[in-house]
Amino acid sequence: MSRRLAATSLILVVVLTALPARTARRPRYGGTLRVEMSATIASLEPAVEAPTSEQAAAKSQIDGLLYDHRDADGTFSGERGNGPFRVTAWEPGKRATLEANNNFREGRPFVDSIEISMGVTTHDRLLDLQVNKADLAEIPPQDARSASERGVRVSISKPDELLALVFNTADSSTSRKASVREAVARSIDRAAVVNFILQKTGEPAGGLLPQWSSGTAFLFPTTTDPARAKELWSQISPAPKLVLGYHSADPLEQSVAERIVVNAKEAGISITAQAIQNSAANSAPVRSQASHVDVTLLRWRMPSPRPEDALRDIVLVLNAGPLAGVNSTPFPDSASPQDIYNQQRAILDKFTVVPLVWLPQVYGLSARVRDWTVPGPGEQWPLADVWLDTGPDAGADKQP
Amino acid sequence: MTFRTRLFVSFMFALLLSVALVAAGVTIVTRRAFEELNREHSDATLAQFQREFQRRGKDVVERVKGIADAEATVRMAIDLSRTNADVSVYVNDAHGVSRSHQLDILDFVSNDGTIISSEESPARFNYKMEWVTKPEDWASRGAFLTKLDTESGSTLALLSVATVRVGDRDLYVVGGERLDKGFLASLVLPSNMRALLYLNLTPEFQETNLIDSSGPAQDANRFEPLVEEVRTNPVEQSGEIRWSIDPANSEMFHAVPLFGRSKELLGTLFVGSSERTVVTLERRIRWLALGVVAVGLLFGLMLSWWGAARVTRPVQKLVEGAREVAEGNWSARVDVRGRDEIGQLAKSFNQMTEQLVEQRERLVQAERVAAWREVARRLAHELKNPLFPLQTTVENLQKAREQNSAQFDEVFRESTGILITEIENLKAIVGRFSDFAKMPLPELGPVNLNEIVRNVVKLFEGEFSAVGRPAITPELHLEEDLPTIQADATLLHRAIENLVLNAMDAMPAGGVLMLRTQHSATEVNLEISDTGTGLTPEETERLFTPYYTTKQHGTGLGLAIVQAVVADHGGRISVESETGVGTSFHIELPIKPPFKPQTFPMVFEKKEDEA
Q1: Superfamily of B440-610 according to CATH
Q2: Best of B125, B128, B129, B152 to mutate (most A CBs within 10 Å, chain A)
Q3: Which residues of chain B make contact with A145, given a CB cutoff of 8 A?
Q4: What domains can be seen in chain A, in order of their start residue?
Q5: Higher-scoring residue by pLDDT: B435, B138
Q6: Closest chain B residue to A255 measured between Cα atoms?
Q7: Where in chain B is the domain with CATH 3.30.450.20?
Q8: Quick one: how far is CA A201 from the chain centroid?
Q9: What pLDDT score does A393 carry?
Q10: Do A262 and B88 touch (CB under 8 A)?
Q11: Over the range A53-79, which residues count as b (16 or more CB within 10 Å of their CB) and which as e?
Q12: Which residues of chain A does B127 touch, with a Cβ-Cβ cutoff of 8 Å?
């Protein structure tokens, strides 16, 4: 019996050792990587500022392919074209073609070129991924599950984008009442948002930093407490009517806003959702201060995996609004997780910012894309390392 | 108002009344007919709405049943029947399914009533819809109305529920259509009708709850009374709403209560029909009636005028004939032919005037005879007194001559003296008769009556206080500002003198003679009163008859002369007397005589003329 067991183990060791050698492929040069994005970039000139955060992020990703060096503050330096790719064709707001830079100091990228299509809708991106008309595309987190079920190869990052409620304490007298803010915060069912709206792609958020970054996120409760919300609201007289603003172009924000309204109504809180269509909606900090809304939804992506840097960034982002007066000086090197927790606690106890969910970055990949690694907070798309498997059995095995 | 005018007005009034009654009758009958037509139209529309409502209900039931029977729904039911099934995967299913089945409302509800997916309230997943799990035979329930809370607010919906049973667990499919402006717009209504819906969502009336096919209804507050009426008494009601002063801008609304599953009042459907068509038709009919009335009135006016003239013309002739008779033309005749009452009246009138003329002739004849007899009697009486001494004197003179009496000469002188005296008396008598016969016409001039009165009184002052007779005290009450009148001073002086003489004769034992003047706007008055013996009523009645006298030596012409003078001046004289108290004469003289003075038509004068 023991002999049979030993022989079986040996065979398994041999097979498992030989299998990667059989399936592993060597990187290949060549091919055109087709990238689709929803943002439209009017200009790649550094002096031209992107009007929206989405466009700024997209422009940053392209700049990361064109520049050789990136400074600590996130800006790119050096000559454009010294990076792994250089621009060979440019149709503002529609299409860009990048060619591999043979003289890139870290070596020529594997793909010959990258074709970037801008302004492509989510529906079209998913379709193109399904029919292999695109190799790489961003997918909204709430569509990750359905995309996967439809056969799209999905790559999901760690949750690094916070969706939170931000009260307009500057202009709204209602929002200046702590009991109002707390009642709204306690009425929200974060788990339902994650499970139903995000289709389980994300995490309930209690703190300003994710668990994987701070290690203390579990200390911030994420459960709903409608009874306490009702109790708090009943003590407010006269009962105010709140307006919740959300970005009209963001379906996720709309769904979450509508769910918050339903949760709040169940707790007896009168709140209505209102789409913000003007330019103020494009900038969350500014949006939070829109005078006609009492509270708004904020999407904030961590600029760095370091908790102290990320926390300082959100404090800076909201320093003009609900976090006015909060210390935004960088944490010292000696700062402990306790210090970071304490600052979060101090902020969150005021309920001016109410974290809702953590969202990951979701990418759809075609079957031929190889060596794709999901970029973390503050990281660029690693397209210089990606190669295309154009062999006959390409796609037989898929990377996660 | 003349008889003809009265008759014309009566004809016109009768005509107007008849026409008005006919016009009112036609208008009322027409209006009722239109209202009946309109009501039938509304009833038909309501029936059409009911059919449309039922059809929609059946349609909703079919579509919901189709969803429940679909393979995807059955798979969902099977999946959900498993323990620890992941319901989140179906959270967006209602959206696509509802769009493919053209439903406004679609909910997938699990066995315990939890909403798995909702089209109308996508964010209400994981909440309960408990009413759907209550025991009810949904398969035979059909469509029903219910109030629905969505993220855009409360609304009414026509719902149906179907179940998919897997094992002992049910998946409920709740689907339907909103009763909103789209639903109202889809109703097929006649051009002059419209439908509105009041959603009974709040305890109090709210204008925003009333919608029509384009959204919130205009002037919704005008519907509040009807809404409240239906709320109070939830049966079909109706009422008119006037949108302006013009009745054509009014609408008749039928309010139909809409009930839910538990017979609760969920809303009120208003089916309104414009009154414009009815009002316009009524106006046309009214104008037509007015035209007919106007033409009828014009025709009636002419006919009435002709009829009134035809009827009153003989009467007018009778009036003119009567007026001529009144003016003294007793020979007036009326030329009216016909056998009707007017003709007979005219014939009688003519006969009457003929008889009057004949009777007047006979009366004149009789009066003439009587007058002559009176004159003869007075003459005999007046002449008899002087003739008797004449006869006696002449007989004495003959007797003295036959006797050759020595005193013959003396007798002769005395006799001739008596004869001369009596002959003078006879001449005086004849002269007075002659004077009365020759009463002159008054020569008018400005006369102060007070002055004449004073002159007359002054003339008799000696007589009033003559020795040997009881004194008469004159009292003058003369109005100082008596106006001057147009009169003949001589004739008036003579008349007043006669009256004063009469008064003196009436007061043989003395007394008071009062003369009073006063005036009014058109005449002056003179009153002459005595405190004499007075007159009996018979005497008073005959007092102004010529040759009538109550005195031994009077001619009976004095007061007749006074009456003639007053009449010649256009005035009147009257007398009041009481035996033993006194007599008062009242003379009223116009300040300006209304006509040219004429000689008083005295029989005596005529008799003299005839003589």
Answers
A1: Histidine kinase-like ATPase, C-terminal domain (3.30.565.10)
A2: B125
A3: 89
A4: 32-157+362-388 (3.40.190.10), 161-359 (3.10.105.10)
A5: B138
A6: B123
A7: 70-178, 182-274
A8: 11
A9: 55
A10: no
A11: ebbeebbbbbbbbbbbebeeeeebeee
A12: 262, 266
In B, minimum Cα distance to A273 occurs at: B151
In DSSP terms, which residues pair with B445 in a beta bridge? B487
Range B70-178 classified under CATH 2.40.170.20: no
Q: How far is A195 from chain B (nearest CA, A)?
A: 6
Alpha-carbon distance A85 to A383, whole Å? 10
pLDDT in tens, B244-279: 888 888 888 888 898 888 888 998 988 888 878 777
Dist CA B33 CA B31 (whole Å): 5
Give chain A's radius of gyration (CA, Å): 24
| Predicted confidence band of residue A281 (pLDDT cuts 50, 70, 90) | very low
Residue B85 CB: number of other CB atoms within 10 A? 16
User: Which of B121, B125, B151 comes nearest A196 by C-beta?
Assistant: B125
CA closest to B91 among chain A residues? A196
- ipTM confidence score: 0.79
Q: What is the pLDDT of residue B604?
A: 39
pLDDT digits (tens, 9 = 90+) for B279-326: 787 788 878 878 887 888 888 888 888 888 887 888 888 888 888 888
Chain A positions with Cβ closer than 8 Å to B: 145, 189, 192, 195-197, 199-200, 255, 258-259, 261-262, 266, 273
Q: pTM of the prediction?
A: 0.62
**Which pair of structure tokens corresponds to residue B179?**
């009763």
Q: Report CB contact under 8 Å: B89, A199.
A: yes
CA distances from A107 to A78, A384, B335, B375 (A): 17, 9, 148, 182
- How is B449-517 classified by DSSP, letter by letter? HHHHHHHHHHHTHHHHT-TTS--EEEEEE--TTPPPEEE-HHHHHHHHHHHHHHHHHH-TT-EEEEEEE
Taking a C-beta distance cutoff of 8 angstroms, is the pair B354, B370 a contact?
Answer: no
What architecture is the B182-274 domain classified under in CATH? Answer: 2-Layer Sandwich (3.30)
The span from the CA of B207 to the CA of B220, in Å, is 5
**Residue A196 is nearest to which of B88, B121, B151, comparing CB atoms?**
B88
Q: Which of the residues A143, A188, A196 would you substitute to probe the B interface, choosing the one with the greatest number of B C-beta atoms within 10 Å?
A: A196
Residue type at position A157:
S
CB A205 within 8 A of CB A190: yes
Chain A hits for B121, CB-CB cut-off 8 Å, are 262
3-state secondary structure chain A: CHHHHHHHHHHHHHHHHHHHHHHCCCCCCCCEEEEECCCCCCCCCCCCCCCCHHHHHHHHHHHHHHCCEECCCCCEECCCCCCCEEEEEEECCCEEEEEECCCCCCCCCCCCEEEEECCCCHHHHHHHHHCCCCCEEEECHHHHHHHHHCCCEEEECCCCEEEEEEECCCCCCCCCCHHHHHHHHHHCCHHHHHHHHCCCCCEECCCCCCHHHHCCHHHCCCCCCHHHHHHHHHCCCCCCCEEEEEECCCHHHHHHHHHHHHHHHHCCCCEEEEEECCHHHHCHHHHHCCCCCCEEEEEEECCCCCHHHHHHHHHHHCCCCCCCCCCCCCCCCCCCHHHHHHHHHHHHCCCCEEEEEEECCEEEECCCEECCCCCCCCCCCCCCCCEECCCCCCCCCCCC
Q: Is B250 helix (H, G, I), strand (E, B) or coil?
A: strand
| CB-closest option in B88, B89, B124 to A262 | B124
Closest residue in B to A258 (Cα) is B123
Model pLDDT for residues B322-375, shown as the tens digit of each residue: 888 888 787 888 887 777 887 888 888 888 888 888 887 888 788 778 767 777
